[in-house]
């Protein structure tokens, strides 16, 4: 993989990546590592990636011209505004600046520079203190994290043997599997799998042993 080249930026294409099989790449900050999932350019533009901070590491203060979205997967993530344990959802709006670090080490799911220009909300949510809501199927529950225009971000919890009817994602769907696994017509997917299904795609997903995932819908181009 060339760390300087664009990656998976044709969002009309389906992409599936098992991050557990990918190599960690060094970032400009010593002790901070990344697995890119989609990338517009080296150190700029739109990016989705996993980011791992070793203990007692930090990144220099920097701006996010078009926003930053973070879900803390493991450990505790920190900046000058607070400490965020695993399960915290964070949105830093366009033009925001911070100096991130982690004293204990952490693992993050990060999306950069993808906010609509009118989305200026700074938002923090500890999902351990938020409520689950039943979805259309009685065996599937959702926890809304944030929404703006057509874009919706939420956690989805599937109970054992839950199955959904075939359905279409008019604005696309992006998922990252946190635990468990699920399947559809194109395969079976375990923890650490990232899937981007383009706008207009259709599938019939289900799970055997249950699944917890981070999901975003309505954000991909038609």
Written overview of the protein:
- The structure is a single chain.
- The strands form six sheets. Strands 2, 3, 4, 7, 8, 9, 12 and 13 form an eight-stranded antiparallel sheet that branches. The protein has a seven-stranded antiparallel sheet with strand order 1-21-18-23-16-15-14, with no helix packed on it. Strands 5-11 form a two-stranded antiparallel ribbon.
- It is built from no helices and 23 strands.
- It has 222 residues and is mainly beta.
List the helices and strands and how they pair.
Elements: E1 15-18, E2 25-26, E3 32-41, E4 44-53, E5 57-58, E6 62-64, E7 68-79, E8 82-85, E9 88-92, E10 96-98, E11 101-102, E12 106-112, E13 123-126, E14 133-134, E15 140-148, E16 151-158, E17 167-169, E18 173-180, E19 182-184, E20 187-189, E21 193-197, E22 201-203, E23 211-217
Antiparallel strand pairs: 1-21, 2-3, 3-4, 4-12, 5-11, 6-10, 7-8, 7-9, 7-12, 9-13, 14-15, 15-16, 16-23, 17-22, 18-21, 18-23, 19-20
Structure in a nutshell:
The protein has 222 residues and is mostly beta strands. It contains no helices and 23 strands.
- Poorly predicted ranges: none
Helix content: under 10%
Largest sheet: 8 strands, antiparallel
Strand proportion, as a percent range, falls in over 45%
Beginning-to-end CA distance, first to last residue: 28 Å
Inertia-based shape: globular
- What class would the helix/strand composition place it in? mainly beta
Question: Measured on Cα atoms, how large is the radius of gyration?
Answer: 17 Å
Overall average pLDDT = 94
Q: What is the total tally of β strands?
A: 23
């Amino acid at each position: 993989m060339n760390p300087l080249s664009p990656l998976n930026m044709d969002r009309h294409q389906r992409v599936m990546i098992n991050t557990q099989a990918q190599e960690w790449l060094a970032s400009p900050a010593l002790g901070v590592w990344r697995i890119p999932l989609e990338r517009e350019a080296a150190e700029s533009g739109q990016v989705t990636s996993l980011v791992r901070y070793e203990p007692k590491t930090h990144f220099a203060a920097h701006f996010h011209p078009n926003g930053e979205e973070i879900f803390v997967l493991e450990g505790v993530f920190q900046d000058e505004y607070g400490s965020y344990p695993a399960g915290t959802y964070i949105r830093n709006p366009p033009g925001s600046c911070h100096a991130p670090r982690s004293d204990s080490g952490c693992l993050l799911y990060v999306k950069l520079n993808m906010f609509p220009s009118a989305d200026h909300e700074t938002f923090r949510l500890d999902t351990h203190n938020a409520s689950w809501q039943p979805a259309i199927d009685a065996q599937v529950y959702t926890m809304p994290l944030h929404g703006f225009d057509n874009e919706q971000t939420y956690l989805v919890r599937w109970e054992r043997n839950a199955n959904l009817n075939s359905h279409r994602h008019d604005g696309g769907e992006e998922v990252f599997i946190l635990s468990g696994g699920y399947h559809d017509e194109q395969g079976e997917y375990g923890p650490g799998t990232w899937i981007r299904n383009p706008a207009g795609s259709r599938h019939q997903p289900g799970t055997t042993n249950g699944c917890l995932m981070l999901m975003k819908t309505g954000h991909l181009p038609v």
